[in-house]
Amino acid sequence: MRRLRIVIIQLGVAFWKVVTHSHIHYHQIPYQTMDPIIGLVTQYTDKRHEDDFVDRLNFQYTSYVFALSALIIGYNTYFGTAISCWTPAEFKRGWVEYTRDFCLIENTYYVPLEDPNMPPERYREERELTYYQWVQFILVFLAFLFYLPYLYWSTVNWWSGLQVKAVVDASCKLSKTDVKSRTVQVEKIASHLKKFIDRKGRKSPIPLIPNAVGRNWVAINYILTKSLFVLNLLAQMILIHIFLGFDFNDFLNLRVGFGSNWIANGIFPRQTMCDFEVRKKGSIQKYSVQCVLSMNMLNEKIFLALFYWLLALLVLTTYNLIVSIAHFFQSSARQEFVSRMLNAGGHRALDDDDSNPDEKIPLIDRPTTYSNDYNRVLSLSPDVIVVLHLIAKNAEYRACCQVGTKSENCTAFLDPRELVRIACCGSHVYNTSSMLCCEGNVHNRDRGGVMAHSCCGTQPLRLDQTCCGGTIHNMIAGDCCGTEVYFKRDTTLVCCDHVLSVKTTPDDMCCGTSTFDGGIREMCCGDSVFESSQFDSCCQANNGTARPYHSSSHVCCDGPLEKASPARACCYLRNGDGKFVDTQYDKTKQCCKYPYDKIYPMGKNKTC
To answer: What long-range pairs does 109-116 form, CB within 8 A, spacing at least 24?
Structure first.
């Protein structure tokens, strides 16, 4: 064991000398030589698509945390100042370095500063701190243990004939393909799932395992994998305590926090003692020096953080395990999951009282024979539910606007239920429950605590506002008059042809954009106000104009004409172009009758 420690340190020192003294720089290394390394890292960090977030939190992200911790501690151990010792004054520089290296390799032992007496030599070995040289290697080993459950899952999940990874991978790539390729891939995925579902009496892939397990092979092994994650977390917490030299009764010692308790109880002591012997002129000189393990300050913080990380992850993984068991093996939970997915896709069960079954279909049309298929999908086996669960957790659901144009814009969603509330606003995808589309512009509905319900031009309109001609007014339930706002119940105002006017009398009425007194002393003709003392009638011409006149002196023939006599009247005659022209005639002697081509004389009996 002692030789192994020396070899490891020598290898580390030799590697450091090669790196620091070599003339080969990083930019001189051909890029092609880095491809395998980059490929290996990329392959490990890429999403596997046969697990959910909690699984990745265990085997992937936690492995990263442990590996990074091992790298930091290892660097500090071999290339930093892991230990410093207080040596006698006669020690030269070489002796000081020898003392430091010896004490780092051969272990130190802890003696509380409050204890003035040194323990006997036979008890010093019992107090030796044997772990700190191996911390980085133990962390790498623990990181590998996190990967074992996933390695088991990825090995056995396809034995039943259901290609879990291939199906989920293909589903995750659908959103990045064109419509034609997407349709082909969907048919392939559906065909594979259908063949698996139609296989009656599926047997166990392993002869010694009962067929009941084989028929739920994927689901049972997925639950077993999650159980292994839980057991691994418990085992790791116990291993850390055993590695640090705790008794089982001290299992919760790591809960003390970042205070000074660990320094006092010797878990991660800063100050230790080290004994070594030096041969001098045929005699052996013994030394006991006091050392400072600065690396223990780093170890303390890292192990405390890892402990609470494992504790939180244990709670989360246990909860995820319980929920997964309920979702996969409880029939009501399976039905609720599939029903929710189908509803998000625009399908729902048909009710007997459903008078309008095609109403409010959010995404796709429902076939007329859908009710039987709906019930069939609800009765899917736990194995297929696991695959659908993994697809729902990994695949991106994309909503795209202006497809096929240069301004095509897509937004990805992990939850398919989000698609029900998604719509397009020009080239932008937005959520209709929290956003508002106003002439191609997307705004938040929440406007300072008050929700906007509609638009006023390009701006959102709150419930306590009124929109008039694209202008927003801070008035509740107001009425518009052009771009101005008012209350109709306000008796002092009147809106005349989009112009807001103030009434001078309660009887004021509109005449074009002006007001008049309703016929008491004024009259309205052609959107203009005239004095009633001068005119009593209004003559509307064929061209749409209107002119006032007095009926005692004028007659209205496409405009007021002065009467030649009281018997004069107006007749519209058709001219050579087929148009009617107004003509006066004497209604006591002449007749204006069909075909209105001329004025006819009245008959002997004064009849026309």
So the answer is: 109/272, 109/273, 109/274, 109/275, 110/266, 110/269, 110/272, 110/273, 111/272, 111/273, 112/264, 112/266, 113/271
CA dist 534 and 553 (Å) reads 11
Contact yes or no for 504/515 (Cβ under 8 A): yes
Per residue in 325-359, pLDDT (tens digit) is 988 888 777 777 766 666 555 444 444 444 443 33
User: Do 485 and 498 form a contact (C-beta atoms < 8 A)?
Assistant: no
Residue 579 in any domain: the answer is no
Taking Cα atoms as reference points, which of 461, 383, 45, 50 lies closest to residue 195?
A: 383
Residue where a domain stops, chosen among 254, 281, 315: 315
Which tokens is 244 given? 């640090």
Does one domain contain both 420 and 289? no
Is 523 in contact with 536 (CB distance < 8 Å)? yes
Domain hosting 423: range is 397-433
Q: Are residues 153 and 292 in the same domain?
A: yes
Please tell me what DSSP assigns to residue 256: G
**Predicted TM-score (pTM) above 0.90:** no
| Residue at 65 is within a domain | yes
pLDDT for 100-129, tens place per residue?
888 877 777 777 766 666 666 666 666 676
Among candidates 309, 300, 238, which has minimal Cα distance to 265?
300
d(CA 601, CA 608): 8
Let me know how many helices (H) and strands (E) the chain has, helices first.
Answer: 16, 32
**What local confidence, expressed as pLDDT, does residue 148 receive?**
92
Q: Which of 335, 348, 343, 334 is nearest to 386 (CA)?
A: 334
If we measure between CA atoms, which residue out of 236, 361, 318, 231 comes closest to residue 54? 318
